[in-house]
Design brief:
- Helix content is 43%, strand content 17%.
- The strands form 4 sheets. Strands 6-5-4-7-10-15-16 form a 7-stranded mixed sheet, with helices on both faces.
- By secondary structure, the protein is α/β, with parallel strands linked by helices.
- 48% of the residues are buried.
- The protein is built from 11 helices and 16 strands.
- It has 2 domains: 130 residues, translation initiation factor eif-2b, domain 1 (Four Helix Bundle (Hemerythrin (Met), subunit A)), CATH 1.20.120; 200 residues, 3-Layer(aba) Sandwich (Rossmann fold), CATH 3.40.50.10470.
């Protein structure tokens, strides 16, 4: 059984505090928007799909426990809440896209004859619950599409394939199953995964703390490597494909993902290994023309200089700690895997438009 990044029932939301993993598994109650935004900002929950889902579910929980009495009050509360949630971590587009879609949906509902605060509240809650359900369905589709595509291009007969992945893109980063790690799960389910190598993903160690935890939990054959071992692993361990996730994919196919992704794409290109990005269509932002337009979040310096509160770096040293980097579209040689299909970067805009 996959690990759960969150547990939800009407009026109740529990979020797995991923800061405590892998040693402590503890779910914390999120009772409203303030708690949801804090969980996102502090990275108790992370991963672009999971951020959006926790955001809208925290809104649903607060509306369930304390519903507004007037339509105008509801509209104001939802607008201000979505602004707060979107600003918690701005690079991941999923929360912004969910906020825009929910705002448009609520505005249409509010204009219908006989709209009441009770009815509109129910509509918002049900909208959030459907987003949770759809994410799991989309992830399974991404996993299956990606697995089949890798096997078709592997030229390995019936032999297993070896995958290298970065950061955490599994059930802990989504509502369930995962994106890039969903591809790994699908390969494993087909009996065609020989091995997966996961990077540690410094400085926050999502790979060693979270991805490794998921792989061990599900008994998937895996090995942890340091970020600086990726190129030699590609050369020495016969890596079939590199599969990563994305926090934002823009119109030309440039992709923002956890810092370190760019160097993996460069190494994969040199070694002739297909490089895939696995992301739901909700992570695709066609409003931005290229990666230069993506706002990159910068994290506090102590995340790089300290580990578990222990200072490792020399006092006084300057720190640059971007949370993401941008991989140019020409390095995404395998394709962009979405629930709507697998597209070459130059096909992305047309492919997503056709699938809508």
């Amino acid at each position: 059984m996959s690990l759960e990044s969150l547990r939800y029932s009407r009026g109740n939301l529990l979020v797995l505090n991923q800061l405590l993993l892998p040693h402590i598994t503890e779910y914390e109650a999120v009772t409203g928007v303030r708690g949801g935004a804090e969980a996102i900002r502090e990275m108790k929950v992370r991963g672009a799909p999971a951020i959006a889902i926790v955001g809208v579910l925290s809104l649903a929980v607060e509306l369930t426990s304390d519903p507004p009495r007037e339509v105008s009050e509801l509209l104001t509360f939802v607008r201000e809440s979505l602004d707060r949630l979107t600003s918690a971590r701005p690079t991941a587009v999923n929360m912004k896209k969910a906020a825009d879609e929910l705002s448009e949906f609520l505005a249409r509902e509010a204009e219908l004859p006989g709209a009441t605060p009770q009815g509109l509240t129910e509509s918002v809650v049900r909208w959030a619950e459907l987003l949770l359900k759809k994410d799991v369905q989309d992830n399974h589709e991404i996993g299956d599409l990606g697995a089949r595509h890798i096997l078709q291009g592997a030229a390995s007969g019936g032999a297993g394939v070896t995958v290298l992945t970065h950061c955490n893109t599994g059930s802990l980063a989504t509502a369930g199953y995962g994106t890039a790690l969903g591809v790994v799960r699908s390969l494993h389910a087909l009996g065609r995964l020989s091995h997966v190598f996961c990077t540690e993903t410094r400085p926050y160690n999502q790979g060693s703390r979270l991805t490794a935890y998921e792989l061990v939990h599900e008994d998937i054959p895996a090995t942890l490597i340091t970020d600086s071992m990726a190129a030699v692993t590609m050369r020495e361990r016969r890596v079939t494909a590199v599969v990563v996730g994305a926090d934002r994919v823009v119109a030309n196919g440039d992709t923002a993902n956890k810092v370190g992704t760019y160097q993996l794409a460069v190494s994969a290109k040199y070694h002739g290994i297909p490089f895939y990005v696995a992301a739901p269509s909700t992570s695709c932002d066609l409003s931005l023309p290229n990666g230069d337009s993506i706002v990159i979040e910068e994290r506090p310096s102590h995340e790089l200089t300290d580990v578990n509160g222990v200072r490792l770096a020399a006092p006084g040293i300057g720190v640059w700690n971007p949370a993401f980097d941008v991989t140019p579209h020409e390095l995404i040689t395998g394709g962009i895997i979405t629930e709507l299909g697998i597209f070459r970067p130059e096909e992305l805009r047309d492919g997503l438009t056709r699938g809508e």
